[in-house]
Specification:
Its main location: other. The protein is built from 21 helices and four strands. It is mainly alpha-helical. It has four domains: 124 residues, M75 peptidase, HXXE motif (A middle domain of Talin 1), CATH 1.20.1420.20; 115 residues, de novo design (two linked rop proteins), CATH 1.20.1440; 145 residues, Cytochrome c-like domain (Cytochrome Bc1 Complex, Chain D, domain 2, Orthogonal Bundle); 159 residues, Cytochrome c-like domain (Cytochrome Bc1 Complex, Chain D, domain 2).
Amino acid sequence: MKLFKSNCTKILILALNLALVLVFFGCEKKYSELTIQQELLSDIEKLNQKVTDFQKIVANTNDEKKIQQAFNSTRLSYKKIEWAVEYFTPDPARFINGPALDELEVAENTFFSPNGFQVMEELIFPHYSIENKTDLIREIKILNGNLKQIKQHLSAITISNSHVLDASKMEINRILALGITGFDSPIALQSIPETKSSLGSLKKLLPKMNFNSPESKNCEKEIATIINQAENYCQSNTDFNTFDRTYFIKNFLNTISKKLVAFQKINAIKNTNRNSVINPNTATIFEKEAFNVNAFIPSEEYRYTEEKAALGQQLFYENSFSDSKTRSCSSCHNPEKAFTDSLKTNQSLNGGHLSRNTPTLTYASLQNAQFWDMRQLDLEKQSLDVIQNKDEMHGNVSNAIQTLNKDKKYQKLFKKAFPTSKKIEEWQIQNSLASYIRSLNAFDSKFDNYMRGNSDDFSDEEKLGFNVFAGKAKCATCHFIPLFNGTVPPSYQKTEQEVIGTPADKNGKKISPDLGRYLQYQMPQLRNAFKTPSLRNVAVTAPYMHNGVYSTLEEVVDFYNKGGGVGMGISVENQTLPTDKLELTEKEVKGLIAFMKTLTDKAYQ
């Protein structure tokens, strides 16, 4: 009888153990089968819990270290879903981890106050004050509301493999241009740990696409291996200022980007064309054909063609557009000087001087606004503005057309450029001039060739300079890699202006009287605001700033090193440039300038 009971007990225990094993493996199986969308929603729930815990900590303690740790932990959790939030819900995303600056709607003369992590960061770092508690709790509640909106949206949409792959490629570009540069962690400087978190989330996506061919699985493993190496590198190199971005981009981010394109090709995943600026098949963002100039045209009939560019090149030297018949576009934009004029400001028609420095036309097509004050949205309107400007050309396009119609050379060029058109029209002239400018993006500098792996010719000083540019000096938080202008990656739908407090002269006692973009839109945030220009070919396009106040790169770097206008002692109420000194060493300054010289195209070397 005892033996029978003993055996029954053993059988019962075995049955219970078996049940537990089945439950355990059943749960494991269920977890592994979560779709990308389901896991994404689960991660949002985890983030919501982090936000709730963060709010409780802020409400119940004034301990600076605990609050800062809770903040860092919460944003690390956000970084796990950043790839999807930024891709599928860009509007609310702006108020989750966007810059702590007013969002301007200039056409409506309205603005939205910033919200999100970067606003909280300013309230917490470098030191937390109890006076900020109320504002901080309010920001946390707003964040919670935005996350609910995002969850609702992500629950309702269909997330295809094409979307996931496109979002993954955009996230790599975001990490490169905004993540490792400190753009979204400007004070806490948690960019490197956050990069590790962002990459870790991408690693989990490809296996969930369920492509099972040996070639696909092998590519999956290769990407996972590279991401593991990148994560380990971030883990071992956490200091923001000393992080080697040159090495990290070349060896990890570029390699991951290439492998993602290979994975897409192996599995015949279609392009989504959600981001029209970047060629969806480009191996990396540094490739010569990575950027699409047609993403910046007013409408489809303005598409770039070589025939339009050839016509535009002839029109660029045409004097008939000016009232005096003595000026052409080349009068100020000299091709031998990277389409600048080497003057502080050029001469006006009335014998005086223009109010602003002549910017280079190279890479001007890769931005969403033209002129220093951004008063025109595209190159077509820009050309007409210059032709009609009483101080520049004071011309009339209609009158010029009469001259062009009599020229057989132009008749042939127009026919090639616009084969279906029966006569020369004003828009065709604008489009042709704009098309020529769109042909001026060479992408063949020393930096380009190095980043593409076509050359190892990049000195230690130049590498240091790039790392300072994209790190300690934070130049890349305004001059975004790889265009080095103010067109914001990775979607490139917006071009930024900045208020840096440029002085009226080298003495640096007063701000330049030029009100910049404020002249078009009387918003206090735009007083003395100017477009962030491209730094490509910057070594050969002196003098610098909108008023040509600085004649050397050394002077420009010194201005920023001091903290812009405010750092120099000028009163600038709305300066968007950080006012603290960069404290660059002499070696770092030399390296920074050496790097900027590597951005010169072959034609101007």
